[in-house]
Amino acid sequence: MTEAAAELPQAPEEAKAVFGEHFPQAVRYAELLADAGVERGLIGPREVPRLWERHLLNCAVLSEVVPQNTTVCDVGSGAGLPGIPLALARPDLKITLLEPLLRRTNFLQEAVELLGLDHVTVVRGRAEEVMGKVEPFHVVTSRAVAPLDRLAGWGVPLLRPYGEMLALKGDTAEEELKGARAALGKLGVVKTEVLQVGTGVVDPLSTVVRVEVGESPGGVRFAAKRAKAARTGRSRRRR
Q1: Which residues are known binding-site members?
Q2: What is the rounded average pLDDT of the residues 15-42?
Q3: Residues of the binding site for S-adenosyl-L-methionine
Q4: Domain, as residue range, for 233
Q5: How many domains does the chain have?
C-alpha cells in the first residue's frame, strides 16, 4: 500500500445507496485509485482523502440523467471517471471507456477485469479516430476533458440521431455553454440545458451540461464522414 492509499477514508453511507449491490466493487475501485492510480500518476495524492465525495459519488450521480438500457461512451476516460462509477451504479448500461493514452487504457482494462464489469469495454483511441469504427452511442459522457466547444467537437459526432452528451462541469458551466452555442449549432445540437444532480448524496451538487442532437449528429461535415465510413464497411464485407 502506498502512503497516499493510507489516506483513503471509509466510504460514506450515501455510497451504499448509490452503488447498491455493487458497493463492494466501488470500495475496491476507490482502493485501486488510491494505490495504483496515484502510483501511475492518474490522480494526485491530494485527491485521495476526498476520493468518495469529489470523484466516485460526484460521477455516480450522473446516473440520475442517463436513460435506461442505453449505450454510453465515456470520452477521455482517464482513470475511469465518470465511466466506471456510472457502470457500478447502472449495470443496465453498456459502457465504452475511450482513452488515447496506453498507460491509462492499461489501468482501465485492469480495473474492468478486477471489478468484473462485463458490460464495460475499453477502447484505446481518440474520438475522431474511432468514428465510423464503432456503433454510434445513445449517450456520450465526459469529465474534466476540455472546454465545452472543443469537447462537443469530439463527442457529438459519436452520437446516434437524437442522442445526448452529458458533460460534468463546474461553476463555469453556464458561461461555457453560452460561449459554445455557435459551435454547438454547427454540430447539429438542437437543445441544451444545465442540470444539478446528486441531491442528498453530494454537496455541492454535481453540475451537468446536457446537449441533445437532432437527426444529424455532428452536422453536415460529419454526416459525410459517417456515410463514407459506412460505404467502406460495406465494401470490406463484400470482399
Answers
A1: 76, 81, 127-128, 143
A2: 96
A3: 76, 81, 127-128, 143
A4: 68-238
A5: 1
